[in-house]
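Still learning. Show one?

>
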Amino acid sequence: MTDKRLRTFILIARFPGSSNPTRRAVGEYRTVTLEQARKTARAWLDLISAGIDPKEEVERKKRAELRKRADTFESAVDEYAKRVLPKQRRGKIVEHERRREFCERWGDRAITSIERRDVSDAIKEVVDRGALYQAHNLLAHLRAFFNWAISTEDYGLEYSPCDRIRPKLLIGERKPRQRVLTDAEIKAFAKSHTPSRTTSVGRISLSDHDANEVVPIILVVDDEFLIRALLSDHLQECGFKVLEAASADEAKRGFPLVLRTAEKAAIVPVLSGG
């Protein structure tokens, strides 16, 4: 008991590196129960018998825990996004897809704990919603990510959970998109690429534009994020304000005003399969 009347459980022993008995606090009374203090003391005595300083063992476990946190799937994704993706033309799109599809699922898990079954289940969910091309892309990106993680030797990963996964069996054959537009569709699509007040799908005023100026809006609807991103990037370069939705229902729920006030709309399945 101290002069402030604080009671502490202590262990007196000859710790490694010292020839004299030394007092070490096991824990404060009420913060640590008597049974917990005895259990800790017995563990410390076992370590001392093995020539290990309990204090060093505690520090070793703390470092291991910190390393474990650094080896989570999400931390590896962060490192990959910083070191690899900036070199890729579609790096931001790949990062967005990986975080949405996988980080929400595995983010706090150790990267070494992710197994082939985990990857298969995640890709099957994408297949089940009909996004076959996206499933192929996600599996390819995931395979590249795990191969990178192995090559860095920073995560203790010795094999990729994507190994032996055959895309053709899991997803199906990746067929090229052979949709050929009709003359009317080509005309409608070409017309939609000329920014003007008469071809807009809705209008919107922006604070950085003139008060009387309106910006044409195009709503891009596709269930595959990569396709939406490709179209959106191009249309924005053409001067349009672009909104995105993954389905017709999402478009109706998210942008009812745009759909109700649209002067003209051209529905052109430019990248549709089949």
Q: What stands out?
A: The domain at 73-170 is CATH 1.10.150.130 (DNA polymerase; domain 1).
